[in-house]
């Protein structure tokens, strides 16, 4: 029989994208207000692998990944996604931008072995977490690098994204409780 154990806390990582620098800045400020200080943030990366968001967000989207210093229990991902959705709605309600959806805020988390994203869209490879939120293991860590799956979004397959997530993984590993580090998944 398996033994029940608490899961290690995870490192929250959120993707924020928009075509408006003001919307990106606003969303990052709101994320910090709600979820605490940042540990790391990426440079602005082009988000041009899909036209999926163009009809409601426009073209020439930029994305920034931000990682938070305070680790959380994995179930908190549901609350973060609900908050992110509310923040997106609040930004749209300002009517400061011409687009229906001026910013997208996608929370997720990182462990030593995986990178997980929250979504409201169901698919065969996603698990239901509750309150309309699903989780997807987007990347897994093996052989010293992040590895993608057939369903991994194209941007997360790019070197710039994975390099930032490697930095996050190093930060996470360094700040885990030393005893927990001995038993953590490590690919």
SSE order: EHEEHEHEEEEEHH
Extended strand count: 9
Structural class: alpha+beta
> Major beta sheet, specifics?
9 strands, antiparallel
Which range does the strand content fall in?
25-35%
Poorly predicted sequence stretches spanning 5 or more consecutive residues: 183-187
Helical amount: 25-40%
Tally of DSSP helical segments = 5
Give the distance, in angstroms, between the N- and C-terminal Cα atoms.
Answer: 24 Å
Mean pLDDT: 94
Alpha-carbon Rg, integer: 16 Å
Shape: globular
Number of self-contained structural domains: 1
List descriptors:
187 residues, single chain, 5 helices, disordered C terminus, alpha+beta
Kindly describe this structure.
The protein has one domain (11-176). It has helices at residues 21-35, 54-57, 76-93, 159-175, 178-183, and strands spanning 11-18, 38-41, 45-46, 62-68, 104-110, 114-119, 127-130, 133-142, 145-148. The chain is globular. It is an alpha+beta fold and 187 residues long.
């Amino acid at each position: 029989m398996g033994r029940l154990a608490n899961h290690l806390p995870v490192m929250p990582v959120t993707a924020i994208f928009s075509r408006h620098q003001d919307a990106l800045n606003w969303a990052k400020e709101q994320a910090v207000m709600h979820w605490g200080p940042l540990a790391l943030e990426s440079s602005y990366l082009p988000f041009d692998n899909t036209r999926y968001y163009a009809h409601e967000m426009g073209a020439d989207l930029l994305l920034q990944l931000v990682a938070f210093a305070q680790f959380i229990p994995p179930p908190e991902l549901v609350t973060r996604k609900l908050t992110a959705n509310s923040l997106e709605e609040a930004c749209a309600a300002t009517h400061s931008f011409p687009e229906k959806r001026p910013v997208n805020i996608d929370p997720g988390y990182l462990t030593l072995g995986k990178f997980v994203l929250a979504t409201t869209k169901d698919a065969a490879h996603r698990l239901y977490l509750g309150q309309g939120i699903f989780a997807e293991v987007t990347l897994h860590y093996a052989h010293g690098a992040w590895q993608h799956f057939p369903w991994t979004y194209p941007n997360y397959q790019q070197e710039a994204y994975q390099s930032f997530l490697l930095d996050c993984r190093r930060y996470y590993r360094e700040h885990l409780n030393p005893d927990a580090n001995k038993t953590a998944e490590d690919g």
